[in-house]
Amino acid sequence: MQPASRPASTSTRPAASPLPRPQHQVNTQTKVLDTAHGRILCIADIRGRISALNDLARDANAKAIIHTGDFGFFEAESLDRINDRTLRHLTMYSPLIPSAQRTHLLAPDNPPAVIRSTVNIELLSEFPLLLSGQIKLQIPVYTVYGACEDVQVIERFRAGTYNIENLNVLDEATTRCLDVGGVKLRLLGLGGALVPHKMFDNGDGKATIAGGQGTMWTTALQIGELVDTAQRVFDQTETRLLVTHASPGREGIIAQLALVLKADLTISAGLHFRYATSYNEFSVQGDFEGFRHKLSIGKEAFDKVWESVKGQVDAVIDDNQRVLLDKALSVVERLPPAQPSSGPGATATGEEPAWKNCWNWNLCDAAYGSLILDVKEGRISAELKSQGFNYAYRRTATVAPTPTSATAALPTVNVNGSFPPTKGSTPVPERPAPPHLTPSTATPPPDATTGKDSPVPRVNGATPVDKAEREKQKKKEKKERKDKERAAEREKAADNKGSREGGAGTPDPTAQKGAPTPEPSTSAVEGKEAEELKSPTDGSSGLRTPKTGKPPRHPWTIFMRMPQTVPVTEAEIRDFFGEAKGGITRVNMPALLPGRARLMYVEFGDEEAMRAGLDKHAEKLKDIIPEVKQALDREARGEAPSYRGFGGRGRGRGGPGGGGYAARGLSAAGLTRGGHRANGEGGRGDHGGGDA
Q1: Can you give the pTM of this predicted structure?
Q2: Residue 662: CB atoms within 10 Å
Q3: What is the SS3 assignment for 493?
Q4: Residue 371 binned pLDDT confidence (cut-offs 50, 70, 90)
Q5: Residue 615 sits in which domain range?
Q6: Which of 30, 43, 556, 653 would be 366's cystine partner, CB 3.0–4.6 Å?
Q7: Are 362 and 274 a contacting pair, CB within 8 Å?
């Protein structure tokens, strides 16, 4: 069904266009909320929990609500139209599903059929209750549709089949004006995800709105129609607020659209962080060229798609669609002219006003925070509330001491003095502790900086051993040890001299007069062996296994593997994750190895963004189905970790089961054990770590 006020179909498929609508008709209304003072609650991603809107509005004392998408526009029949991946994503984030049930449904061994047979509309959205009147909205709600909605439900709103009191769906053909607090606030809305390769595809949409299989996206003709709508209702006395699901902070085309619409304010969602953000371009760009660069990147992405489909589009669009397409292309071409001066404080003639005057808010999900616009006497104040991150773990996280270390008052620190927040110390194979680490009540080890003994703790005000006696005994033992070493060296020198003279030389008189060569004491041998067993002091405190220096893996990483013969760029990898690419913080592409597959690591800002990437990525990348999964360490996968420095491929590369520092120290002393080769050419061991 198609109302007379809607323009002709924007579908680019070869099909007969509906009858053209009468020109110069726009679906617009003005709502007077409170001419003196009013508060507007702005939230994102209510995800079907529609009954919470009244509670949130009551807590904020709001006169109206602006919502930026993922409202929960689903009904019972929608389940048959949602594909398995989208249904799993909705199950993962639906606030209507109890946590225990969600964990069971999303178990790795559960096939999609289990989720489909268990999840009903009551677990996904309260929209049927709103439609039937069991839930009523207490104040006006203005929303765009998000990335996960049913396109057929949205089309019924456009056609007038669905009409719910206080619910207003903003789109490219529908606008509203709020008269509140001395401000006429013009609401312009654009829903759906911004997916460049779908900007000329209507999917299952039968009219101007694009979507299918439980997802919705923005098309080029919708952008053109929104520009047409804004131009028809333009009023110099109004303040323009652009409401989008995609963020103008990340999508250059949305930022260009805000310029063309002359937006004073923008509100968006889609990034799913725990903090809302408030900014203008001047505050986040180094200079005006940085702002232009962001817009040019959006233009380049659009141009690539446009050049590939231009011939097909020209063949199927009608005259009305041609007008809208030209306006969409004017948005893409809208780049502010370069300024002759640059820098944070630079000004120039003809500077783009939006560079400093257009203010943007990107909202976190409704469960984590909100924005309140307080409008009074013509001034729009902003109140941001965010749940934020939980840093309490830093006070409770401790590092367990190694088995060979004595109990300490503080956690053991690593080389650079930082406390690892989550990862414990490296395990040490069980073996008898060397004498220098054995706990004892004897003399404490000397201080490393002064060479003197550390102070002995007093027990009930008295020292356990007299300090003077201890110093005297220590000096005596040291002198005896040196005398014995000198005697042994003299005897060895005499033997060497005798062997060179054919054995006829006279004995060393000093050896004859002196005492017999003493046998090395047991304690001296043990001390020497213990010194050989010590780990090297460089890069280690001696109390734990030396670290390799490799940083811990980013916890929210997706691992990808595909044939090496297929070239791929970082931009193509980001586009592979579709609407989830906004959560990507880094793409790591290790160097290729001969005969090995191409490996890629895609890091996300948080777990939710990573889960969205796992759910929303495309099936193929350059006609290849890559392996896509969460990157896990070996311990998490149930494999035995390899300890570098103990037979692993770490420093020293010792032999199987016993290489590393200890073996290297024995080899240097000529005391190799178990047939180890002195040059450390034993087994290489395992790599350890994660997928790499």
Answers
A1: 0.57
A2: 21
A3: helix
A4: very high
A5: 557-630
A6: 43
A7: no
